[in-house]
Amino acid sequence: MESVYENLKNHFRRKLSCFRLELLGFDLLKGVAVVLFTFLLFLFFYAGLLSFFRLLPDFKYVLYLILFLLLGVEFFFFILLPFIRFFLSFRLSRDILIKQISSVIPRQVDDIFISVYNLAFRDKLVIGQTVLKQAAFNQKYRQLTASRSFLSFPRILYLKLSVIVVFLFVLLFFTGFEWYDYYSDLKDYRQVSGPSNEVGFHILNRSLEVEYGKTFQVQLSLSIPDATVKPVFICYGGGEFLMTSVDSIFTYDFELVNNDLKFYFKTQDQTSDSYLLRVLPTPSIDGYRVVAIPPAYTGKEPEILTNTVDLQVLYGSVLQFELTYSNLDSLFFEDKEQSISIPLKSVSKTDFSRQIKASGEYILSGSNAYFSHRQLLNFNIICISDLYPGIQITEIQDSLKNSLHYFYGVITDDYGFSDLCFNYSLGTDRTVVVPVSFMKNLNTQEFYFSFDFAEFAGTDKTEINYYFEVFDNDNLSGPKSTRSSRLIYRIPDLNTIFDYNREVSQSVNNDLKKAEKIAGEIVTGIQDLRKKLLDNTTDDWEKQQLSKEVVRKKEQLDRLLEAVKENNQKKSDLNRSFTVQDSLLIDKQKKIQDLLDRLMDSEIKQLLDEFSKLSEEFSKDKFKNLDERMEFTFDQVSEELDRNIELLKRFQIEERHDLISKQIDRLKSDQTRLERLLENKSFDRDSAYSRNKSILNDLRAIENNYEELITENSTLSEPFDLKDFKTDFDRLSWKMQQQRQNISGNKKDKKLSEEIEDDLFELSKRMKQQQERNFVNKSLPQNDIELIIQNILIISLSQEELLQQFSDVQAQSLKYNELGRIQDLKRQEYKIIKDSLSVLAKSNLMLASLLDRKFYDLEVKFGLLPGYIQDNRRSDLLREQHYIINYLNDIALSLTDALQKAKEEVNRSGKRRGEKNSDKKRQRNSSGDSGYPKMKQFQRNLKKQLEDLVSQMKNGEKGKPLHQRISNMIRENELFRKSLNEFISEAGSMSSREKQLLNEINQLIDQNIRDMANYSVSGQLINRNNLIYNKLLMSEKASKEKEDFEDKRKSESATQTRFHRPEQMFEFQKKSAFIKTDIQKSDLKLNTYFKSMYNHYYIKLGNE
């Protein structure tokens, strides 16, 4: 029983839920129909009013409110309220659902429905037992469901209501009723509506809105029943203004509209409604300020720019914008590539920053509710780029040492520099960078630098590429650099040096022979002039011309001798710069140069100056005082020239012999490298063949040079003992040709290679022995010099006796005349001694250097004594005799000292040879090099060995040979470190910079030794070696700067100045006024842009 009751009850509940939804749908459809009907009915009513009445704005406003009030009420009762009833009826115990259903179901089942509903959902309100109530529910529910109309919504109601809604929609959209126009007219309740009697005013403008401050043109058309055109006035602000008519369109311009404006139109008898012209809030910039902040590296102060849109700023500058504005909701900063939104910090003010890196137009635009991206400000910004730095270099070669170059430079930039360096590379080697001192913040400045290319002598490189490079301080886009012109310095090899020595020697010898001839012509000219003086038929003009000819010859002689000295000095400097010469050879060169300098000493120049004055204004008496002195002087010059030619030839042979010996040593090194290449199993045959060919050509060139040397030696008055090595050269040439054939056939003959090395070693040894025998151990002729010293002392003693005797005897006595005859004999004795020394001096440079001008003048002094004796000029006689005695004693003492020094030099030479034989490891230092040149040469050798080692490893060398090479390299590095430490301990005072660099080199050497001990051989080792060499250069530079600061260096003579500071060289050369003037002008106060242009124009002008 109970289960049947529950089933029927659930069924009843489901039927009620479906009925509720159907009822809600019906109510909503009914609500839509009521709202549409009301809306259409009201619009029909409004259309009727418009057809008969003019509706004022206030009346239209009331109608508009009534419409919305009606629609609102209907919406509540017919749409919203059904929803409320639907949600409230969820609880079936409420009366609301019974009322809704009772209004729809038939009356005959209404009472039964209410009973069933109460028994099911409101059983507590029914009195009786539960079982009886359930039974009653079951009975009545079955009775109720028997009726078909039970809880079935009447479909006819839905159909009728749907037809009504569709009819209303058709009426609204498909009948042509202009409901929207009527509704719009009603909505625009501010305007008067209704039928027009005569004139219709129609504004053609889409909207009555204008931007602030802009001009607005009102356009009006009229609808006139009688088609009569009437004048139209626009009225506003208390005035009436005639409108312009064009093609029945009336227009009027409102100028600079700043506020909302009410207006209306008027004809002769009609007035339009009032209209309102609204001013839209236009975005605008009321004021601004721009602060240009240049990049920090320029050092320039920020610049404030107000109320200007044309800006010139530096590349990378930051522009700070400070703006005041109005009517602005958003702000944009735009260029040709992008648009950036700027945050607004307040209603009327903001600021922002932007970095500028390109020229162009930059736009500030703004937006608000009425305007989008409206242009507010246009900035035309010129971005001035940081120009490249400029550099101008002037290079001067040292007048004595052509490997030493001095550089004067001018660098310029807009804002300063970050680096300045001197770069050089040897052949294809990587570039070595040497820092150059400069001032970072000085825009235009001078600098000086010096570099000695001689330090690369002895390397296998023949060309050095070098240039200067300057970097500006642009840390924004990266420092820009400018390089000077790339120059090439060609390092002469030994063959080139030998050829140059031969050419210069020939030139010098020829010039000396010409000089000797001219000196003879001068003597002949003086003799001719003396003869003309005895001839009374010769006038003074002719005598003056003869004296002028002598002066012209003298000037020609001066030029020749200057050329001789200059060429000889250049040759010697080239040899010293690019070859390793021992101290003895250098000392001989200095003696040769001294002899050339003494040819035209101050006394001769003074004598020639007096003669030159005589040629301008000839005087017979003055000529008599000069002619004998001139004739004797140039006789002596001719004699000295003859002696110097011989000495110079001897020295040239010694010098070239030394070069040939060095060429053979270089040939040994080249042959050793060839043997190393041949030891490799997979050697490059073409490379080996080329090296062999080059060595063979060098051997033949050395042979030809030596044959020329033998020929020139035979022309000497006392030739050197030079052996003929033709057999040795032929044997070597044959063996090298055999080696070439072996290379072509890819054969190896180790025995032949060893024979070539032994023959080269033997030839080098014999050349060195010959050099020591002829040049090093060549001393003064001891016996001859000792005999000459005795004779000089005898003459000196006898001259003292004569001096005493002349003091005691009377001029009228016979003894006085006898003493005069004896005095003349002393002159002849001295001449014999003089001639003997002159002959010996022609073959001995040391002896020739002792014979100064006084040695020859002494014969003149002896020649003056007979005249003084004859004229009884006792005081002059005694003065000259004292002079002769003193000089004889001096020359004897000088010869004795020279003889003693020669003996000591022979002893020292023998001792050096003994030490040399006992310690062969010191042979590489036999040239006397020490300090930085020695260490740099050592480092270059290490670099070469390391490159060979890396090359061998790349070719696949392994095992014991490789280990042996690495062990040798470690030992060489240990020796270099030992040499460096000895240098540091013996150097004494050093600058802190120099000590720091040398200690860093020590650390790098330690790293190299550790890497090689671990067999870690790579490109890093080569890089570290390059770094060591670079630091050696920097340390040497620091040492030189310290010496310059202390001013310890002294020059040998004014014409042989060596400049520690390069600026001294340029001061000595008297730089052009152009450079100095332009440097001073660089301080002119110019605009940044024009200043930079000026600097680069200056550099360009200087380079031209």
Outline the structure in words:
The chain has 1104 residues and is α+β, with helices and mostly antiparallel strands. Helices cover 59% and strands 16% of the residues. It has 27 helices and 26 strands. A five-stranded mixed beta sheet has the order 2-9-8-4-5, with no helix packed on it. A five-stranded mixed beta sheet has the order 12-18-17-14-15, with no helix packed on it. Strands 21, 22, 24, 25 and 26 form a five-stranded antiparallel beta sheet that branches. α10 (583-598) packs antiparallel against α12 (620-679). The chain is elongated, with a radius of gyration of 61 Å.
Give the helices and strands, then pairings.
Elements: H1 2-52, H2 57-88, H3 95-102, H4 110-121, H5 130-145, H6 155-173, H7 179-187, E1 200-203, E2 209-211, E3 214-223, E4 233-236, E5 239-242, E6 244-246, E7 249-257, E8 261-266, E9 271-280, E10 284-293, E11 303-306, E12 310-314, E13 318-326, E14 330-334, E15 339-342, E16 349-355, E17 360-367, E18 374-384, E19 390-397, E20 404-412, E21 417-426, E22 432-435, E23 444-452, E24 463-472, E25 481-483, E26 487-490, H8 494-534, H9 540-578, H10 583-598, H11 602-616, H12 620-679, H13 685-713, H14 726-744, H15 750-776, H16 782-808, H17 814-841, H18 845-850, H19 853-870, H20 874-918, H21 931-954, H22 959-986, H23 992-1013, H24 1019-1046, H25 1062-1068, H26 1073-1081, H27 1088-1103
Parallel strand pairs: 2-9, 12-18
Antiparallel strand pairs: 1-3, 3-7, 4-5, 4-8, 6-7, 8-9, 10-11, 10-13, 13-16, 14-15, 14-17, 17-18, 19-20, 20-23, 21-22, 21-24, 24-25, 24-26
